């Protein structure tokens, strides 16, 4: 009996030792809290976002110490540190540096630019859904790739829904990212602030939502990705429209900071209005 008790005690002590959550704050250089900072383990489906006071908690139980803990906020330089070094420091307050953005002066000759729309704008077919009762759904991020070789400016990001039912409001978070090894690269965002669109059900007209990003001055002459996810406080259900059995189309998706994956043969209804060189 004593041996059994000792064995159980040893197991409990071992589990307690292995189970490890860390809590901290994400601040700017002036010690102001940064809300909605995305934190997590690189290439793992483990993470979360900071609250209004910059607080975060993450479970690193059984995470290899060589894995990378990272923080991504569009306005700030990406932060990365090994889990081992973070734990050893015993200081879980992280300060982010503001990005130094050099805006290119662009002289626009209206005769040399035209307006176009790239992406998928289908509203008839349901492509994928988000259900707040499934935590995995809420942290899924979808992206489409826009192939481009001309100078263009992104004016609007648009999404189409087929069905929706949610409490109070829903917040959609967008990003524009450059490409790395064929996938989006969250360390190379083309925007200088978090792009958010908060709506009620009554704001959704003709199953379409649009966010004006003209003032962001987003210019590129390369391929880029358009990303969208739902904020983690979403309560309800919704379905994105899309093209199904479109064999020339690809969907890119990930959960938290998990590895990006590509699904060929379909594409969610995400599109952009641009001003592009003729």
TrEMBL record:
Q: Does the keyword Signal apply?
A: yes
- Phosphoprotein: present as a keyword of the record? no
Mind telling me which Gene3D superfamilies this protein's record contains?
Carboxypeptidase-like, regulatory domain
Highest rank taxon of the organism: Bacteria
Species whose genome carries this gene: Flavobacterium polysaccharolyticum
Q: What is this protein called?
A: Carboxypeptidase-like regulatory domain-containing protein
| Keywords in alphabetical order | Signal
* InterPro entries documented for this protein: CarboxyPept-like_regulatory
Secretion signal: which residues? 1-21
